[in-house]
Amino acid sequence: MSAAPRPGTPGATRTCPHCKTTILESASVCPACRHHLRFDPDAAQSARMRSVPLRVEGTIRPPSGEAALEYSVVLTIRNAEGAEIDRQVVGVGALFPGEERSFTLAVEATEANGYRPARGRGRH
């Protein structure tokens, strides 16, 4: 695992004061609880610059007539070499016959302002 980025650099993080989730330092709205964190006069333009390069949706249901189905939602992030950077259990639960759950994974991306690559510097 690589060292955490310095404050003010792309990828630097902080804790949301509302929900305590680790978020990007540059975020003006928490992606978890959606609370506004600071006034952003360029919010409309920032929203236009946001992209979703990955979105996956799916639904699960237990086989009919069977017992309950337990599930764990596990998120794993790997770098280009395949090394695991982060792994988290996002949620757990159970489904009973006749129930279903839908899941959506979305990766939201925005351009890092003022970033200029340094020579010999690793990326996250």
UniProtKB/TrEMBL annotation:
Name under which the protein is recorded: Uncharacterized protein
